[in-house]
Design a protein that fits this description.
Largest sheet: 4 strands, antiparallel
Number of strands: 4
Structural class: alpha+beta
Radius of gyration: 13 Å
Number of helices: 1
Shape: flat
Strand content: 25-35%
Helix content: 25-40%
Order of helices and strands: EEEEH
Length: about 60
């Protein structure tokens, strides 16, 4: 069973409008917290790290 964690951006006012992630040894699974039964997207840990790094770079360039 996966240990799902909700996004840290899911604070007051955002309700359940966020994503959840579950880390596995070599993969990261991502799902919509509003509809977890719809399934998840699973990518390698390396791909996920690249994705998060890109988001962080976009945030600093604003």
């Amino acid at each position: 069973m996966d240990n799902w964690r909700k996004s840290s951006y899911s604070g007051e006012g955002d309700g359940n409008n966020c994503v959840e992630i579950a880390t596995r040894p070599a993969h990261v699974a991502v799902r919509d917290s509003k509809a977890p039964s719809y399934g998840s997207l699973t990518v390698s840990a390396e791909v996920f790290a690249t994705f998060v790094g890109g988001i962080k770079r976009m945030e600093t360039e604003r």
